[in-house]
TrEMBL record:
The gene is hemH. It catalyses: Fe-coproporphyrin III + 2 H(+) = coproporphyrin III + Fe(2+); heme b + 2 H(+) = protoporphyrin IX + Fe(2+). CDD domains: Ferrochelatase_C, Ferrochelatase_N. This is Ferrochelatase. Its EC number is 4.98.1.1. It holds the Pfam family Ferrochelatase. Fe(2+) binds at residues 213, 294. It is found in: Cytoplasm. GO terms for cellular component: cytoplasm. InterPro entries: Ferrochelatase, Ferrochelatase_AS, Ferrochelatase_C, Ferrochelatase_N. It comes from Tahibacter soli. PROSITE patterns: FERROCHELATASE.
Length: 355
């Protein structure tokens, strides 16, 4: 027997005035720093064909029989090193950014605008958040994945989850999506300001290393614009900081598996720098809007130990922009440029986006 489709909706929704919302989307994180919670998270994340482009049945066999029996314990240990009383840093910092952007847009926009957070994997699930906004009468939605550089593995996966969520709605909202903001001048300026503020407090190091999350090399060869966008961000930032290109290096972290990923690798670069007598390094991760496992554990802890053990003398991690005013202002302006013609986002009594 065929069953009729069940679309979500609210009888009250059509009676309410149009409302507009912004949805920030990040990757997702486990519910707890335990092997069982990490296993659930990795199972969902690594089952996504956007993330792992291998034949389905073969990958599911490897994932279920090998990866999910080994990695959760190791990753849970890493999560435990950075877990806070409020929870996973990725969730805590993403929520703080969401709240700050909500305040900023409420004060700058003419209409009723609110900002919400959803995750591609885990909670708060994109499907649940979109359904709740729809039931609440939101008729205009702008979706901003928190990845400055587009990759099919991150932004593409978020858009897939959004499309799945929309399929469940009887009356989906009008939609604008933001694909990337890797060369947005206000974003570059926010990154530059954070480096300048760090230099002000700590002085400069011999090298500034810009470390981005890696992806398999084959994805770039198949057309993913990620590498080009990382390079463009690095070039713009070096120019804005007036740093000679040889002092500002680009590298890729967080490699998983045996396949070739984007090079140079961050850990190998740090080892080579120490071996060649470079004493001090400052590391910035411009691909991460907020701090998370990959910045706080891999970069600020693991790679620090690696650099110092290889003979380096000074290693500093420059934190992600998180809910800093400059990032909030840059994202507010980005959202408003993508909502041209939507009256709710027009300048309100507060005027523009105060930096
Ligand atoms: C194995 C394939 C992976 C691809 C491709 C990938 C791309 C990618 N990831 C991010 C952002 C983040 N990744 C994070 C964690 C993380 N990433 C992978 C694997 C791939 N990522 C794994 C297995 C994990 C989990 C941790 C671990 O077991 O090592 C995170 C942090 C999540 C957190 O909870 O803090 C972020 C953020 C981007 C931007 C990207 C492509 C450009
Ligand atoms: Fe990742
Ligand atoms: Fe990692």
């Amino acid at each position: 027997m065929f069953s009729a489709p069940k679309f979500l909706g609210s009888s009250a929704a059509s009676a309410r005035p149009a409302r507009a919302a912004v949805l920030l989307v990040n990757l997702g994180t486990p519910d707890a720093p335990t092997p069982s919670a990490v296993r659930r998270y990795l199972d969902e994340f690594l089952s996504d064909p956007r993330v792992i482009e291998k034949p389905r049945w073969l990958w599911q066999l490897i994932l279920k029989l090998v990866i999910l029996n080994i990695r959760p314990r190791r990753s849970a240990h890493a999560y435990a090193r950075i877990w806070t009383a409020q929870g996973s840093p990725l969730l805590v910092q993403s929520q703080a950014l969401t709240d700050a952007l909500d305040r900023q847009l409420k004060s700058a926009c003419a209409g009723p605008v609110s900002v919400h957070l959803a995750m591609t994997y885990g909670a708060p699930a994109l499907r649940d958040v979109v359904a709740a906004l729809n039931a609440d009468g939101v008729r205009r939605l702008v979706v901003l994945p928190l990845y400055p550089q587009y990759s099919a593995t991150s932004t593409g996966a978020a858009i897939d989850a959004l499309a799945d969520a929309l399929k469940t709605l009887r009356w989906p909202p009008e939609l604008r999506t933001i694909g990337d903001y890797h060369d947005d001048p206000a974003h570059i300026d926010a990154l530059a300001q954070s480096v300048l503020a760090h230099w002000e407090r700590h002085g400069r190091a011999d090298r500034l290393l810009l470390s981005f999350h890696g992806i398999p090399q084959s994805y770039v060869e198949a057309g993913d614009p990620y590498l080009a966008q990382c390079r463009a961000t690095a070039d713009l930032l070096a120019k804005r900081l007036e740093l000679p290109r040889e002092q500002c290096l680009l590298a890729f972290q967080s490699r998983v598996g045996r396949e070739e990923w984007l090079k140079p690798y961050t850990d190998a670069t740090l080892r080579d720098l120490a071996a060649s007598g470079v004493g001090s390094v400052q590391v910035l991760c411009p691909g991460f809007a907020v701090d998370c496992l990959e910045t706080l554990e891999e970069i600020a802890m693991e790679n620090r130990a690696l650099f110092l053990e290889a003979g380096g003398k000074r290693y500093e991690y420059i934190p992600a922009l998180n809910d800093e005013a400059a990032q909030v202002a840059a994202l507010a302006a980005l959202v408003r440029r993508h909502t041209q013609g939507w009256a709710e986002f027009a300048p309100g009594e507060g005027g523009g986006d105060a930096a």
